[in-house]
Every structure is written in C-alpha cells, then in structure tokens.
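Annex B. Sample input.
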Amino acid sequence: MIATSSPTPTLPATLEWRDDSLHLLDQTRLPLHSVSERQGSAEQVWASIRALKVRGAPAIGVAGAYGLCVAMQGSRSGTGAAFRARLLEQAAYLNSARPTAVNLSWALQRLVDHVARSATSDASELYLDLVREAERIHAEDVALCDGIGTHGAPLIHPGCGVLTHCNAGALATTGIGTATAPMYKAHAAGTPFRVFADETRPLLQGARLTAFELQCAGIDVTLITDNMAATIMQSGHVDLVIVGTDRVAANGDFANKIGTLGVAILAKHFGIPLYVACPSSTLDFATPTGAGIVIEEREADEVTGFGTYRSAPHFIATRNPAFDVTPHALVSGFITERGIISAPFADNLSAAFQRSAPSRP
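Annex B, continued. Sample output.
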C-alpha cells in the first residue's frame, strides 16, 4: 500500500490499493458519511468514476490505473497475447467514463504502453507488472502534490485571503491536493491566512469537500456561494486565487470545474493574481488550445435540484456542462512540481515538461 501524505489524520483516504483490491471513498456521501467501497469489477470502477464517487483529475488517474488492474484480474491465467488484447479493450472502456480530465487517459495509456514493452509472455507476470506500474503512478501523484505545495506556499503571505473554486484538495488526489497543497504547506509553516471556498454548484464540491477538508486541517476557511465571489473580491478580502485543473492545453488554456472562468474574469477585473495548480500529468501537449478540450455534459437532475429536493419546474430545459475553459491570458502562472511557470506559457510549459503526448486508449 502506498504511503500518502495526509494533511490531517481525520481526513479519510481518497483511495487505497490493499490485498490486491481497490477501495474508493464514496465522495458523494461526504461530509456527513465516510464510506469506502471495494471495487469488484471494471464496470463498478467505471460507474464510480462516472458518478463522482471518486473525482478530481489526479485521483481519477490513479483510480483508473488501479481499475485497469481490477479489470485484468480474470485474465491472469491466460496467454500473454490474450492478456494484452484484453488490456486494450478494458483501457478503452474505462477511459470512456469521463472525457475532460486528461489524467485518466494518460494513466491508462501509460499502463498499456508499459505492458506492451514487457518481454514476458506469462499473463500472471504481466498482471504483477501492471500493478507495480499503477503503484508507481500512485506514488508519483503523492510526490507531485508535495512539490506543488512547496513551490506554491511562498505565494501565501501572512494575512492573505485566498479564494478557491471546487475541490482540488487532498480528496481530489492521493496526496495533499493541488490547489490546496500550498495552503497546507503554508499552514504547517505557521503562516496566518484565510481561505474563501466557493460552494461550486451544481454538486457543491466546494461546500461538501473543500470546506470539509480544510476545516479538518484547522485552516481558517469561510464558505461562500458562487455568486458572492465578486462581492468578496470587491471588498478587498481576496489577495490571491488558486484553482486546480483537469486539463491544460499546450498554449496554457485550461479546463476546470464550471464557474472557474467567471472567477478568472473577476480576478482579472479586480487585479487579483490567479494561479493554476497543475501537476505535469495534467498537461496535454497534444491539444494546441482550449478550443480542443472536450467538455463533459452531465445529467439534468444535477441542476434541477439539491440532492433529493427538486427546486426547478418539471420538464424545464437545462444545460449542465461540468467544466469550462479559461483562456491563458487570465492566468498569472501555473504552480507545478518543478516550480511556477509564467508566460509565455506555450514556450515555458514546453521547456519545463517537454514530452510526446500519449495517444489515447
């Protein structure tokens, strides 16, 4: 089992691989109930990702990697050729769970490529190699979060007000989060600051998850509704905005939870720097600009009510894009595990993390 860096001992683990099994924290039941579910099949992993039981780009990537291991457990006694053929099918299936977060396709393709390079024809050995590579992805995620925290913490000064949107925290990763990582590092260093957490409609990840985990860590956090962000900024309470991302295009345009674009426009208007916490696994150099990012459209019932309570008329037309794309011109910098990347982003992101973009399974 991979050792994780938890910001607080009271916060449950996002996911665990133990006893050759994947266990996912059901985040749809937080903050009132902490329930971890063993994933017994590829179909269950797919459904858990789709239903947002596990969410956040880095956590989805790790969950997808272990989910592929779960999917291949029934192929350990066959031939190496059959194992590889099945692996391709299952990777494509799991990749269809959610289209926007690049980490899922990145992790799945990395496992497929890893097995393709193996010289063994023993299916049981290929399976063990698959698990070891998934564990490496998991360990790397923990390290990436820590690096983002180290480089981002100096942005948070004593008395600083930090606004964040959605949940790019420990619950969205297997480490100390991306957007929250600088907050946890600054808090551990004794820096006094306050966080304003947008509730993040329609699924309230800011209210249910970010506010919950920061409160558990003892960080001064204030929950606000999404439409209060402008007033809080105008009043001078916000000095810095830090958000996460699910995909960053080659030019620095980035996709994040719906509402991030509005926050970025407000920050630009009020002269507040906006930084994007971005592990290198979320960079997509194969997509030139944000126009090429596929935006997931989700079910209407997420918009027409709160939980089981319906708040809209029956048969009302809805739109429910889960993400929006923020132009790179609104970004002050990307906080990565290798440092803060400034504009021009197309040049500087490439120089820091140049790699060939993986094909999609």
